[in-house]
């Protein structure tokens, strides 16, 4: 039952440290221990993902043992008074589906809905919130556009087909879950919405930034929330496709009532106009961080400045405030949840056996204050999740990047608390940002 990431990891050069996600932090076997850590932290909810290939290892076959695992996991979370927020798709497409065309194939959207129905029937009310997709932008543009993620395809047309079929899969999955559980089921989707600022106040740079937003954000926000693709998206990609893969009735299916919109945020971009190049083609290309978003035709992303995280990303909390406020003003009836926010650093275990990650603490504090500022400005934000509980397999970076509040010794699987975990625990249990010097 391999996923596209299992296949991708086997190809030399795709993963920095030549590793795979086969074991990672081994939560499959250690979930009881990790739920104990969550209890110590004091969190009230936990985002987790279902592995589609574990449930449907081949077409038409359901793995009951896979389902039983998630039943046990969700029961354990519920027993610990932690709400399970379940993501149905976090990039691990079954290889059998990729062999049939992957997200370029419209049929995958229906297969995803069938899988969603299986999980809704099996897990039912054990789930607090159902998230259909995590970051479809990365699936489409990194997996099928630039090729730096699985399945490693580099094609503008493939990326745009994947965009639409992911949108359609979202809509069909919402319908499938509601058909099983009724209108009271809480449904969501998690989007990473690149936050771009123009390099100057010039009309050209502002136009370039608006175009970037169309091609990286509105391709999902428009269909999912407004039931439309912005006409400029269609027009500016005419050289790539006539969008005939959008069928009558698709947009009505894609637009679904949601309990909230999940928002993932890490950093910001600065964009300027590239003279002489029309605002059209996607121009996917690999950036120095192996997860760079594609260059959008006629635009250029400037190198980040300031103190960068281990991922090479900047730290710009105002971007989170502006993103949340902007979304709430555009969609005033849609609550927001920050579903991922965090930073990777080159953590070291000190002589005292602990990890003193002051930069991660600083990042979290400034970004949580940015959420508070968004609330002050009227944004309807209902929750915040730090990324992530544990160090883990970080896709093309393998195990070379650590985002966790809790360190994983991959040789022994021992969990080691970082200062950021201690700080975060104080925050969630008190509801107040810990004072300066709290960790000293």
TrEMBL record:
Q: Which Gene3D superfamilies match?
A: Glycosidases (3.20.20.80)
Q: Which reaction does it catalyse?
A: Hydrolysis of terminal, non-reducing beta-D-glucosyl residues with release of beta-D-glucose
Q: Per the UniProt record, which EC number(s) apply here?
A: 3.2.1.21
Keyword set, alphabetical order:
Carbohydrate metabolism, Cellulose degradation, Glycosidase, Hydrolase, Polysaccharide degradation
Transport recorded as keyword: no
**InterPro entries xref list:** GH, Glyco_hydro_1, Glyco_hydro_1_beta-glucosidase
Which N-terminal residues, if any, form the signal peptide? none
Give the record's family classification: Belongs to the glycosyl hydrolase 1 family.
Report the protein name in the record.
Answer: Beta-glucosidase
Organism the protein comes from: Bifidobacterium bifidum ATCC 29521 = JCM 1255 = DSM 20456
